[in-house]
Amino acid sequence: MSTPSAEIVGVRREGRRDEVQVGGSRKDQAGGADGRRARAAGRARARARGTVEAKAREPLSRERIITAALELVDAEGLEGLTMRALGRRLGVEAMAIYHYFPNKSALLEAMATAAEDVEQVFGGFFAGMDFTGMDAGQRIVAIGLRYIEFAQTHPAHFELLFHVLPLTYPTWEAFVTGTSTFRIPQSLVQAGIDEGAFVERPGFGVDEMAYSLWAFVHGLAVLRKTRLRDVDADFDALHRAALAAFVHAFQNGARQERPG
């Protein structure tokens, strides 16, 4: 086995001598590296403090707190919404928030006042959809896919609208005759009935059909954004097939009602 050449050994030795001359001992070198890291960390902490101080200088208000809470839910989910985390986001101590909201429940109730805005975002997401040339079943598939897309692209609004914000309707009758987003599946089903594509049956009229449609699509949306969020699959094809099969049940009811 050949030995290293004198030239290479010399370079290595010279390298060690250079290290000693420039940086002192190996211990000194390590200390210098640690010092540089410590100084960098210190600068990072200073920048962070500066950001927090800048936020803290902004006047705190109910509106700022609610906005920050919505942003926090969007980024971390509802489980991430704590007074301490919200305080960090606002650049204030958590106790400062309690001057505006005595507890988390009060904050959630205040967030509920944003329901109208959330519903407007939800309604706007469906506005302008082009149903030209679609039959009743195809319209339901298109709306169902759009609903699932909303859950994926607006997770905070979806969480607030369907999992947090309380309904203001005390009874089922008030709910189905109200002005909530339930009107979307209602109108789809009613149009299908008017066109003869779907048919009402005893105990399974427009409202019951619309409710079953909503429950089915909502289940697909929740599964996609929770349990199946990391699964690699062609979900568009899966959802299309599932929705088409669901619509088929509505259409079969209409066919059974037709004579002959």
Defining key terms:
single chain; 260 residues; mainly alpha; Arc Repressor Mutant, subunit A; Tetracycline Repressor, domain 2; 2 domains
Q: What's the quick description here?
A:
The protein has helices at residues 6-23, 26-57, 62-76, 83-90, 94-97, 104-112, 115-126, 136-153, 155-164, 172-176, 183-194, 206-225, 235-257. The chain has 260 residues and is mostly helical. Mean pLDDT is 80; it is low at 2-30.
Please explain how this structure is put together:
The chain has 260 residues and is mostly helical. It folds into 2 domains: 46-112, Homeodomain-like (Arc Repressor Mutant, subunit A, Orthogonal Bundle), CATH 1.10.10; 115-257, Tetracycline Repressor, domain 2 (Orthogonal Bundle), CATH 1.10.357. Helix content is 72%, strand content 0%. The chain has 13 helices and no strands. The protein has helices at 6-23, 26-57, 62-76, 83-90, 94-97, 104-112, 115-126, 136-153, 155-164, 172-176, 183-194, 206-225, 235-257. Helix 3 crosses helix 4 and helix 3 (62-76) packs across helix 9. The radius of gyration is 30 Å and the shape is elongated.
